[in-house]
């Protein structure tokens, strides 16, 4: 997430209710762990046919500021869902079974940093609510609760802009404490105006200024001074616009020392894109500049990531771009689609769906299907499809995809028209309109769909069971 100090637009959607005893400041109530009390389904929405409108559970987040994205995260298998509640003592992380709504764990209240002046002045544009991100880790998964704001050491010290984080084991039960907490200064320096936060396998990568990065680990350890990587055997500056703490090292796009763009991507000290080039694609791009003469650079560039996969763009000799899905750990090619894929920004702004540029990638719970922007990929067959293209075709932005390969999204808005809900087959790429009143899922869990609604001046998290 990029925290733009001068940003006045609205946050990238994509990855966040109650005292510990269960009563939230906004009025929602939960029972003790193991009891789905007071999350009974009360709202009536019209979901796609794959989901049962009458069977599920919901949480009403009337404590949240209007216009802010609902912060939650699914486990890697998609069988549990973590979200925040708010009490007078702080934010509380709650984890439930996705299908039944059974409460598995409740964290002790966590105190987020105070809003900065920019956040206070633009509460409808900048993110003011903490995020919840999944950290896949090694043998254990974690949910990271993190926020940007200002914080002071004590009353005798001035407040500084920070990223604060608390990590909770995803498989913990009952009343839980964090496995680690950390703060890292996030003030822009030397004219910089942005701070980036990238969740990944080993924690949160925070880039508060210039090209230095700090890794916050689930045990609370802070590793500072990360600014250089080695890609394809050559030293490179860390790409501050996209870098992920992968299981075997930082994953990033390459740039030669001195800031000269070199192309290519890979893992620090590990695999490089030159060895995982898609068929029909040159591993090195060559050209000639009138001012500097001949040049060449490795092909390929990461533009997004989700789960254990990277989404990259490649240029071909015919100038027809290719989007490709690569395994995060090995770089192995998993699927391609004959179209360009727009990168996802990491901005601390409220989302403007269904803008392809602001919508993150979505992965099915079983890991067989992936969507990003206007592309859908079948990772079993290696084939991807481009949707919303062709003469007079409305642009389609895909948001989520289920285990059966059915993807869900919206068309672009034209004039006074609303966004038409659509479904797309990941196996064939065929798109079809859904009834205009249909609410499409924000994410698909294992055996359920996750729907975020903004009716009646407050936000609801609604989880509906999948039909058998």
| Poorly predicted runs of 5 or more residues | 1-35
Q: Biggest β-sheet, characterized? A: 5 strands, antiparallel
Q: Which strand order do you get reading across the main beta sheet? A: 1-12-13-14-15
Number of strands: 37
Helix content: under 10%
Radius of gyration: 22 Å
Cα(first) to Cα(last) distance is 37 Å
Query: How many helix segments?
Result: 1
Tally the structural domains: 1
Tertiary shape = globular
Return the structural class: mainly beta
Quick check: average pLDDT? Answer: 84
Give the strand content: 35-45%
What does this structure look like?
The protein is an all-beta fold and 468 residues long. The protein has one domain (2-466). 1% of the residues lie in helices and 44% in strands. A five-stranded antiparallel beta sheet has the order 1-12-13-14-15, with no helix packed on it. This is Lipoprotein.
């Amino acid at each position: 997430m990029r925290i733009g100090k001068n940003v006045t637009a609205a946050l990238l959607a994509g990855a966040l209710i109650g005292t510990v005893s269960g009563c939230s400041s906004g009025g929602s109530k939960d029972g003790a762990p193991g009891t789905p009390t007071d999350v009974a389904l009360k709202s009536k929405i019209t979901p796609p046919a794959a989901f049962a409108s009458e069977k599920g559970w919901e949480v009403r987040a009337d404590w949240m500021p209007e216009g802010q994205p609902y912060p939650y995260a699914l486990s890697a298998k998609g069988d549990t869902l973590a979200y925040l509640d708010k009490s007078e003592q702080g934010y509380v992380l709650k984890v439930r079974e996705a299908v039944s709504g059974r409460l598995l764990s409740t964290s002790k209240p966590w105190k987020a940093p105070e809003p900065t002046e920019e956040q206070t002045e633009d509460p409808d544009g900048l993110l003011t609510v903490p995020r919840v991100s999944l950290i896949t880790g090694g043998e254990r998964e974690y949910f990271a609760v993190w926020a940007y704001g200002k914080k002071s050491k004590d009353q005798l010290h001035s407040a500084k802009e920070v990223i604060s984080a608390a990590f909770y084991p995803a498989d913990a039960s009952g009343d839980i404490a964090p496995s680690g907490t950390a703060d890292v200064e996030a003030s822009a320096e030397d004219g910089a105006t942005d701070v980036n936060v990238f969740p990944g396998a080993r924690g949160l990568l925070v880039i508060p200024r210039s090209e230095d990065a700090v890794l916050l680990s689930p045990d609370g350890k802070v590793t500072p001074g990360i600014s250089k990587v080695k890609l394809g055997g050559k030293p490179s500056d860390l790409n501050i616009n996209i870098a992920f703490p992968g299981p075997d090292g930082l994953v990033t796009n390459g740039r030669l020392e001195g800031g000269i763009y070199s192309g290519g991507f890979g893992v620090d000290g590990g695999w490089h894109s030159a060895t995982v080039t898609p068929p029909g694609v040159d591993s090195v791009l060559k050209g000639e500049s009138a001012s500097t003469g001949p040049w060449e650079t490795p092909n390929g560039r990461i533009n997004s990531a989700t789960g254990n996969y990277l989404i990259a763009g490649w240029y071909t000799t015919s100038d027809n771009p290719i989007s490709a899905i690569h395994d995060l750990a090995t770089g192995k090619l998993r699927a391609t689609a004959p179209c360009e894929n727009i990168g996802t920004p990491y901005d601390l702004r409220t989302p403007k769906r269904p803008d392809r540029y602001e919508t993150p990638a979505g992965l099915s719970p079983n890991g067989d299907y992936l969507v990003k922007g206007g592309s859908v990929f079948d990772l079993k067959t290696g084939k991807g499809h481009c949707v919303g293209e062709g003469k007079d075709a409305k642009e389609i932005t895909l948001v989520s995809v289920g285990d059966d390969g059915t993807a869900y999204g919206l068309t672009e808005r034209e004039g006074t028209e609303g966004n038409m809900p659509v479904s797309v087959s990941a196996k064939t790429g065929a798109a079809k309109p859904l009834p205009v009143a249909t609410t499409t899922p924000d994410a698909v869990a294992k055996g359920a769909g996750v729907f975020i609604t903004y009716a009646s001046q407050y936000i609801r998290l609604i989880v509906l069971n999948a039909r058998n």
